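[[Local backbone shapes]]
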Amino acid sequence: MRNLTVNLGRGPKEGDGEGNAREAALIDSNLSEVRPKAALPDAHEASITPNVAAANIATATPIDNPDQAYQANTTKIDISGLTFGDLYSSISDDQLTVTFSVPLVKAGPVPTGWATWSSPPFSEDANPDVLFTETNTLEMVLSRPVRIFGFELEPAPFGAFMFTADFFRGNQLVESITRTVDGNNGARLFARTGSLVDRVLVTGPSDFAIAQVRYQLPINALLIALIVILIILIIWLLL
């Protein structure tokens, strides 16, 4: 079973808000007939192999679920305004651009174009807008280093599959997160906090979709220094 469900331009049927499972049961995956308006490039599935021979892997700092603290301390790149069925090579806001190694197709909100997702506490929302790839590998390059980076992921085929997200700073591997994710209402968060990262490589056995891309910029050292100086000056003036 797979997750891609509807033709381009077809909205959800009336009453389908709770009908993800009913529709999904009729197809073989989260994807069926949705295709981008422009043809997808050939789905070459050769692995990207970064140079990590001298990698210094930090202590794992994964974030398991998108709880209130995670959401409050990060900024989400909103994709709800992207055109359904179009290809996108990057997404951005006024602070960060995330560039993809292959163009991703806009679908959603679930179940429009993508049959299922998970529900809180495992995801932010059971009906997110998503971006999907027809390859099993995706590299995301960030326009600047960030302290927190995360996204939700669900495979297209229904069933449990193991996916890995490798977080890099340049060519140095900072951290790897591997999770088993079910394509049938089983989306999970891949997120981490700690030392800065500027690139993420996602690999798995099947095509997949991502949603809820979030980040936190590093604290500006100069700003901290200025605040400390200001506090010292205030204390001095009060003495």
